[in-house]
Structure formats: structure tokens, C-alpha cells
């Protein structure tokens, strides 16, 4: 089985991101480049990280009117990302158009409820019910729109997996059992628990990137899976 860990390269400097990826590349299955990286380094930065030879997950969390999201998807075609994120809350037409505009080898996955939000945050946005129920509703929308899968927390992935057997499930908000800081994450589980519940991809950033020894941290997490 291939390594399901995607390292989130949330570092402001390209040289530091490249050095970290080079160091841990034998212990992760892919590299995730998000908003911080893409806004700073754009296509050039993605090309540089792609040279390392691991699949690239472009986490842009696109969320706009369908025409704009489709055009953005076309503009990143050339980067041949393995995975791209959009926000499920953009609605069915946006999701359908995003998928139609993506390259045939790119998995388009929809972010349901960010792992940094809890039930109280949703209530403040006027969303009744739990983060769990909202994630399930948005997963159903993504499935109906023909996406490849979703992003959700490890608390929901088991339930989503039961209703979407062949879906592709990306799970961030992961913290090893040895007590790495949750920081801004509110719905967290261990990498192993997420894997056991049906996650296809485990997104891990700071528990590796901010560790005193990132290689040892990545190896330790890999060993729990
Ligand atoms: O789409 C994501 O990857 C994502 C969705 C989500 O709900 N929560 C979330 O944390 N992420 C990303 O996953 C990574 C988690 O980083 P750490 O908390 O440092 O492990 C960050 O790059 C986030 O942008």
C-alpha cells in the first residue's frame, strides 16, 4: 500500500520548503502546496517542488462563481496536480464546472467543514446542527456533482465512507497521540484513527514541519499506520 501521508508545505520560503520536502520525501507519499505557498511562489514554485518527484496536491480551496472557478482550474492544468481542492459551499454548479475543467488525471475534492471550525462556529454562521451533519450534507452534494471526493475531519470520514464507497477522502486536522499542539485545529484525530476510518489521504503539516527533527517525526507517524 502506498504511503497516504501528504506533507503540507506551509512555509513562506521556497528554499525552506524545498529543503524540508527533500529531507522527508522517503517517508511521505505526496506534497501539499496551499494558499500560503501558491500566493508567494505561483506556478514557478509548484514546478520547483514537483522536481522532487512526489505527487502534488494543490490546495487552493477555490470558491467563486462557476465561470471563475472553471477558468482557474484551466489555468492550473499545466501544473498537472494529482489533487485540487474547491469549497463544497460554492454549490452544485460550481462543483460540476470545476470537475469538467480539471485535467483527467486530477482528483477534484470538495472541502466540507474546515477542521478549524466546531459546532459553535457553524451556529455563528447561521448553520443549524452539528459540523458532523453539515459535513455529511456537503459530502452528498459533492458526490451528486460528480467530484472524486471530499476533505473532512477524521470525525466524519467513517460516516462519509459508508455512504460513498468509492470516494476519495482527504483528512487534515491530524495530531499524533504524543501530544503535538492542536494550534488552530478544533476537530482533530490521530493519523491512525483517520486511516482506520477510511481516509485515502492524511494531510499533515506542523507535526512534521515544526518538529525538532522532521524526519524522525514523519517516520514515527508512518510507523503508527
Ligand atoms: O484542505 C485542506 O487541506 C485543509 C482543510 C481543512 O479543513 N483543514 C486543514 O487544516 N486543511 C489544511 O491541512 C493542513 C493542516 O496543517 P497542520 O494543522 O499544520 O497539520 C493545512 O495546510 C491546512 O490548510
From TrEMBL:
It comes from the Bacteria. Substrate binds at residues 10, 32, 59-68, 115, 175, 185, 205-206. It catalyses: orotidine 5'-phosphate + H(+) = UMP + CO2. The active site is at 61 (proton donor). Its EC number is 4.1.1.23. One of its GO terms (molecular function) is orotidine-5'-phosphate decarboxylase activity. Residues 4-221 form the Orotidine 5'-phosphate decarboxylase domain. SUPFAM superfamilies: Ribulose-phoshate binding barrel (SSF51366). It is an enzyme of class 4 (lyase). Transmembrane segments: none annotated. It holds the Pfam family OMPdecase. Signal peptide: none annotated. Keywords: Decarboxylase, Lyase, Pyrimidine biosynthesis. The keyword Membrane does not apply. Pathway: Pyrimidine metabolism; UMP biosynthesis via de novo pathway; UMP from orotate: step 2/2. CDD domains: OMP_decarboxylase_like. InterPro entries: Aldolase_TIM, OMPdecase, OMPdecase_AS, OMPdecase_bac, OMPdeCOase_dom, RibuloseP-bd_barrel. Belongs to the OMP decarboxylase family. Type 1 subfamily. Homodimer. Catalyzes the decarboxylation of orotidine 5'-monophosphate (OMP) to uridine 5'-monophosphate (UMP). This is Orotidine 5'-phosphate decarboxylase. It comes from Novosphingobium cyanobacteriorum. The lineage of its organism: Bacteria, Pseudomonadati, Pseudomonadota, Alphaproteobacteria, Sphingomonadales.
